[in-house]
From TrEMBL, chains A, B:
It comes from Vigna unguiculata. Homodimer and heterodimers. Residues 26-173 form the Casparian strip membrane protein domain. The keyword Cell membrane applies. It holds the Pfam family CASP_dom. Keywords: Cell membrane, Cell wall biogenesis/degradation, Membrane, Transmembrane, Transmembrane helix. The chain crosses the membrane at residues 33-53, 73-99, 111-138, 164-186. One of its GO terms (cellular component) is plasma membrane. This is CASP-like protein. GO terms for biological process: cell wall organization. Its main location: membrane.
Length: 189, 189
């Protein structure tokens, strides 16, 4: 792999570089494409699971019916919007990933992708982590501020939001891998 | 800048590359070092501000004294630990940044830094965002789950934790810039 990289990095000519090596770069580019598909699935799944979370309790008082849905919490609204954005970005990034497969030595698309990947990694992490903080509170509550756990009542709602948080963490891991792989591919060409 | 990059990327020889160009790469490496110093200040500030947040209310009941400190909230404990870790990592990364200044064309240290920067970016974003979610709840409360805002009582505590969250976001922005700058510097050599 190091030898291939050396050949690819030398200025012997683009013809040779395209003909034979660039093998591991092409492999990285194909893996990049597949990981992007996985990231789309994870982020879309997270957005959909959170967006459909809704539970109404079977009992009610005269004035109030107990209902929990994702728009009860600003953080969960943020989560749905951000995850949809990340999924949209990943779909739009697929053509650039294809360009990187066809021309494994062009730094342009990789650079474009690594910068945007970093930005959307931050976005996805922020929404996943803040939703996780709320889910934790919903499960455990907090003594000192007198916030009671609501998961005893809203069990299905809690399960669904927890699932969405897990899916978002999968998307985050995939984005980290994408950034690292792009950095490796940028190293030599 | 593009022309310099081309000269730097050609195989004319390392002697020339060290002698004259690599100018913008060296500039990037120096900026990298300065940004790291800023990141250390921001993350240490965030950890210290959050770690010293503690407020005891001047009134108490027979059984209970009202006190809020960062270890009332698991998320804030996580925040302090993570921010200290990020600050520690940034301190330890300074020597590698110095190596990148001395040898602007060596891809090794840059690659090492961009991978670890990405990981710690994720860590810093996760802790900052989850703390922000709790701070938001402390300020605004939540109707549907009956969590009351505590910032009316614990005003100083809320101000201090909000400040820590802002400092952590500064650290996140700096880490994003570091990753993007490393990607730019890796492009050609």
């Amino acid at each position: 792999m190091a030898a291939l990289g050396l050949v690819g990095g030398s200025n012997v000519g683009k013809a040779i570089a395209v003909a034979r090596p660039g093998g591991w770069k092409k492999g990285l580019a194909i893996m990049d494409f597949i990981l992007r598909l996985g990231g789309i699935a994870a982020s879309l799944g997270a957005a959909a699971t959170m967006g459909t979370s809704d539970q109404t309790l079977p009992f009610f008082t005269q004035f109030f019916q107990f209902e929990a849905s994702y728009d009860s919490f600003t953080t969960f609204q943020f989560f749905v919007i951000t995850m949809a954005l990340v999924a949209g970005y990943l779909v739009l990034s697929l053509p650039f990933s294809v360009v990187a497969i066809i021309r494994p030595h062009a730094p342009g698309p990789r650079l474009f992708l690594i910068i945007l990947d970093t930005v959307f990694l931050t976005l996805a992490t922020a929404s996943g982590a803040s939703a996780a903080a709320i889910v934790y509170l919903a499960h455990n509550g907090n003594q000192d501020s007198n916030w009671l756990a609501i998961c005893n009542q809203f069990g299905d709602f809690c399960a669904q939001t927890s699932g969405a948080v897990v899916a978002s963490f999968v998307a985050v891991v995939i984005l980290v891998l994408l950034v690292i792989m792009s950095a490796l591919a940028l190293r030599r060409h």
